[in-house]
Design brief:
This protein is of the alpha/beta class and 543 residues long. Helix content is 37%, strand content 18%.
């Protein structure tokens, strides 16, 4: 063989090797690709029916703990208990617009309210992302739902079943797996539909699994989060809200404080809409924040089945940072699991100090549980949405009930600082970590980075007048929808009119009852919406 032939073979071999390396590099990058959060929906205590209202509660440092609603208590002794059992509760969990989702009243009655809540919040999260649900029919959209409470199964089994059809409705109404399956069926999604139950870490584990599924290209879009409702007082009835139990006497999480005496229970639902960052950028989506990395692990053989493990907490945080390609000193804030227990708080701060302790600047640490209690299966998603809102507003909300630092925590040798007032987020550290540790021993940590606010596209703003449209399935719903937009503009008058109208056209479903208005400023549109319903203004129904 000539020297020239050998050189040619060597060149071909090197080219093939370079192509192989490039393919492996591309595959490796795909496994670590950041995930964009492009929409959010929530129902949390304190009338936090959407992310904007949730942020108001956080920024104002409001305590949303309240006595347990009377209709959740099982008997006269509990209805008159003093002090009344307290926690973070939602109002009107028995209300549901079944007709909107095409579900019969008979089936609705046998359907866990957690499923109903997921349908509503799922729709709202897609609207928040300016995605029309009908356009996603038969798409590879995944559903990853954390859920760990099944009170309705106990309540519904006391009802008499009249027919075989009712038996089927009971099965689909209370089976945990159907919580994700019903959303997939209703919206027509064909990606993975999974319910996760790792107790308190369930919703954050669900988000982690959604990110992994997107990177594996099992789905192109994902809804992830969790739901938790307290539909009976079985914990209170068993006397568990007594001194020395894991439950706080006043129903409040006094996280990191010397008065910490256990956690208060709360309920709620939160979902985020996720997409691979490269796809979100290509599609022109509004990117609220980016998940840079995440990790889950298990305590294994710790000091007790339900006891937290400091080494495991350290390990999951380090792994999430490594997956994100970040160093500990780049993180500005940690949304802690922070239940407010005498055992758990010192272990968590100790783990954070082990990971972040060598930094010179403070690490701010807080917990949303101080606002409305421990949402258990939905706790992690509440923390994640809080962090995304904080990054968007450039502020860190206060951690409530922090008056006297827990004496069992080594505060002097840790860089940990607890915010007790609304603070500006450090401009050079727009990265946060969210922790969620399950009583099952399964831990999760997610690393999130804020996104700079992009200027609005110019093509939306090049008209002196804008056409604003609304649509609903009934005239009453259209009236309520118009009132919500009017209140939104009253609270936030500096909205860009072109963006608002553009989203109402392309990012909302068009139902039979419709309203159209022409305006040149947000103030003009607000005034017209306020007048809607008078004889001068009418809505039309499409044929």
């Amino acid at each position: 063989m000539s020297e020239t032939s050998r050189e040619q073979q060597l060149i071909v071999a090197l080219q093939q090797s370079a192509m192989t390396v490039q393919k492996l590099k591309t595959r490796l990058n795909a496994y670590s690709e950041p995930i964009a959060i492009i929409g959010m929906g929530c129902r949390f205590p304190g009338d936090s029916h959407n992310p904007e209202l949730f942020w108001q509660l956080l920024a104002q440092g409001r305590d949303a703990v309240m006595p347990m609603p009377v209709d959740r208590r099982s008997g006269p002794s509990h209805q008159t208990a003093s002090p009344p059992y307290a926690g973070g509760f939602l109002a009107q969990v028995d209300r549901f617009d079944a007709a909107f989702f095409g579900i019969s009243p008979r089936e609705t009655n046998l359907m866990d309210p957690q499923q109903r809540l997921l349908l509503e919040v799922g729709w709202e999260a897609l609207e928040n992302a300016a995605l029309v649900p009908e356009a996603l029919f038969n798409s590879l959209t995944g559903l990853f739902i954390g859920m760990s409470s099944y009170d309705y199964a106990t309540l519904i089994q006391e009802q008499a079943i009249d027919s075989a059809q009712d038996e089927l409705y009971q099965v689909t109404g209370i089976a945990p797996s159907v919580a994700a399956g019903r959303l997939a069926y209703t919206f027509g999604f064909t990606g993975p539909a999974v319910v996760v139950d790792t107790a308190c870490s369930a919703s954050l584990v669900a988000v982690h699994q959604a990110c992994q599924s997107l990177r594996q290209r099992e789905c192109h879009l994902a809804l992830a989060g969790g739901v938790h409702l307290i539909l009976s007082d079985r914990w209170a009835a068993s006397g568990s809200q007594t001194e020395g139990s894991m439950f706080a006497l006043d129903g409040r999480c006094k996280t990191f404080d010397a008065a910490a005496d256990g956690f208060g229970r709360g309920e709620g639902c939160g979902l985020v809409v996720l997409k691979r960052l490269s796809d979100a950028q290509a599609d022109g989506d509004t990117i609220l924040a980016v998940i840079r990395g995440s990790a889950i692990n298990q305590d294994g053989r710790s000091s007790g089945l339900s006891a937290p493990s400091g080494p495991s907490q350290q390990a999951v945080i380090r792994q999430a940072l490594q997956n994100a390609g970040l160093e500990p000193d780049q993180v500005g804030y940690i949304e802690a699991h922070g239940t407010g227990t005498k055992l758990g708080d010192p272990i968590e701060i100790g783990a954070l100090n082990a990971v972040f302790g060598r930094r010179a600047d403070p690490l701010w640490v807080g917990s949303v549980k101080t606002n409305f209690g421990h949402l258990e299966g939905a706790a992690g998603i509440a923390g994640l949405i809080k962090v995304v809102l904080g990054l968007q507003h450039g502020q860190i909300p206060p951690n409530l009930h922090f008056h006297q630092p827990n004496p069992y925590i080594d505060w002097h040798n840790a860089p940990i600082q607890i915010p007790v007032a609304l603070l500006d987020w450090p401009s050079d550290k727009k990265i946060a970590g969210i922790s969620s540790f399950g009583i099952s021993g399964t831990n999760a940590h997610i690393v999130v980075e804020g996104m700079p606010t992009a200027p609005p596209p110019e093509h939306k703003l090049d008209r002196p007048y804008q056409l604003f449209t609304l649509a609903a399935k009934t005239a009453e719903a259209l009236q309520a929808y118009a009132q919500r937009y009017q209140a939104f503009l009253a609270a936030q008058p500096h909205q860009t009119l072109g963006d608002l109208c553009y989203t109402s056209h392309v990012g909302r479903s068009h139902f039979a009852h419709r309203l159209s208005l022409v305006a040149d400023t947000p103030a003009t549109l607000q005034a017209q919406l306020a007048q809607y319903g008078t004889p001068q203004t009418s809505a039309q129904s499409a044929p």
